[in-house]
Amino acid sequence: MTTKPLRILTGINRTAAPLSGSTILASDLYGAMPCVHTTFLGRAPVNPAWETAFDRLIILSTRKRPQGPEFSLYVDELTREVGTLIEECRPDAIHAHHFGFALSLAFTRTAGSVPVIAIAHGPEVMAAERSASERAGLSEVAAASSAIVVPTSAFADRIDRLTGRRFTDRLTVIPWGIPLNDARVRDQPPTGTRPLSLVHAGRLDDNKCTITAIEALASTDQPHHLTVIGEGSLREYLEQRAAELGLRDRVHFHPFLPRAELWHRLPDFDAFVFTTRGIEAFGLVLVEAQAHGLPVVYSDLPGVGEILGNAGIPFTPGDPRSLAVALNELGRDFHRREALIEEARHNARRYDITNASRRLRELTFRKTEAKNT
After folding, report:
1. Which fold has domain 180-351?
2. What architecture does CATH give domain 6-177+352-372?
3. Alpha helix segments (H runs only) across the chain
C-alpha cells in the first residue's frame, strides 16, 4: 500500500530566492524531505531555479510592511490571505519559519485544528530581545505551536529564557545541515608557515562584526590576507577602515556569491574566519567551510562550539587582539592546521541535510498523528 504524502504548508516572508541562510535552508530541507507535498509561500521576484524544491510555490500578494503604525493592519490583511490559502491547501501541518514574524502570526491565527510547528532561525529572536512588541509576537506563536524547532541546545535555552520558560516541553533540537555530497576539498593541502589566505562570508552588518577580522590583521605575526565576501550596510566603512590600517593590499572585498559559486571558491582558502559577536542560531556557513576542509577560527558564542566540535580555534567575540592571537597560533603550527582540516571534514559529516529533513518530517508526522488520536 502506498503511503499518502504528508501535506505541509510553509513559507518565508522574503524574496523567493536563495539569498539568505533561512531561504537556502528551506530549499534544502524540503527538497530532501521524503514523502511530503510542500506548498511554500514567498515573495516576488522568484528565482526560477528555486521552485524545484517545492511541489507548489505561491507568491503572497499582501503588501509587506515592517513593525510600526501599520503593522497590525498588515498582519490582519496577511492573515486573511493566509486563511484563504489554508482552506484551499488543506495541509496536514504548518511549519512557521521565523516564528514571531508576520507570516508566522498569520499561520497560527488561521491554523484552526492544523498543528503548527514553529521553526526558529535567529532574526526573530534578536528582534524579540530588542522589542516588547516583537517579544509578544514570538510568545503568541510559541503558545499556539505544538513544537518549536531550534538548531542548538544553546539557542533553545535562549528562547526558553526569552519566553519565561513557559514552553520548555515544546522545544526540540534538530541541527541544520547542508547537501554534503556537493562539497569538495582542496586536492593538496597547503604546506609550510607562509601567510594564510583567510575568508569571511556573510552580511556586512554590526552583528556579523567583520571589523574584528580586519583590525586583527593589523597585529598578526604574518601578513595574512583576508577575502570578505558579502554585502551590507557597513561595506564602505569596512573598506575605509582597512585603508586606514594600511591593509588595502591584504583585505579584498567581493560581492555576495550564490552558494554554488561560494562553494567553488572555498577550497582555495586556508581557513574561515567567523566573527559574529551577538546572536547566531546556527551559522550554516560554519558547516559549509568545514565540509570544504577549512579550519574555522570562530567567535566563541554559545552554541558555536557545539556545532564545530573540536574542529576550530575560538577567540573572544568582538576582540581583534584575541582573534590575532588565534590566527598567529594557526599560522605558526602547520601540523595543527593539518589536524584541524581532518577534524573539520569529519565534523561536517554530522550535518547532512537529509538527517535534518528526516527528523523534521518525523516530528511533523508525530504531531499530526497526535492530533488525530
Report:
1. Rossmann fold (3.40.50)
2. 3-Layer(aba) Sandwich (3.40)
3. 21-31, 71-89, 102-110, 123-130, 132-144, 153-162, 211-217, 235-244, 259-265, 284-291, 304-308, 320-332, 334-348, 353-372
